[in-house]
Predict the 3D structure of the following.
Amino acid sequence: MNTLSPDEQLKLIERARQVAANAYVPHSHFRVGAAVLGERGTYAGANVENASFGLGHCAERSALSAAVAAGDRKIRAIAVACIDADTASAPDELMPCGACRQWILELAKDAVILIARPDGSSESVTISDLLPKPFRLIDKRERDS
């Protein structure tokens, strides 16, 4: 797992909180922002809802998509901020959804995942913490070698 300095952690969490303000959430009114730290830079994303709920897009996947589009594939960290969460929210209410966990596994498996709490504190987890028995599609060439 990568390590981040306290300053890097604070900056990444702050960027996630900032971008959450741009979320499009006319249905849930629950804004989420994510910031991804790669080798080349920081990439941000916010959740975008749709009246056809399955067509919405999570903040984590938006930020990871931006990193991939920029050609930055070595992701060091991801910060997630749910700025509309109640301060009494259980930790599970702030974690990435299952789809985002699968994206993190495939695109940022060694990343530190920072979960920003509404009270200003944060928690650091790994994808192994969030997805202990993941689905993996093994390339036939890997299996045969």
Observations:
- The chain has one domain: 6-144.
- Helices lie at 6-20, 59-69, 98-107, 127-130, 140-144.
- The beta strands are 32-38, 42-46, 75-82, 112-116, 122-125.
- The mean pLDDT is 94.
